[in-house]
Write a structure and sequence with these properties.
There is one protein chain. About 90% of the residues lie in helices and about 0% in strands. The protein is an all-alpha fold. The longest helix is centred in the C-terminal third of the chain and has 28 residues.
Amino acid sequence: MASSSDSTTSVDDEVRRLYERYQSAETDAERRAIALEMGELDGRRHAVIYERLETE
């Protein structure tokens, strides 16, 4: 099982990759698709945060 810092680093890396893809996107459609991926990732991050708060 990964530690919380490992999962945070993994998420941070994923955010960085998505941001880089967003910056290099050539069309509005590409940027929109990437923004949706960012939103899904953000939702997963919040779910983990809330879960951790409930178990404290």
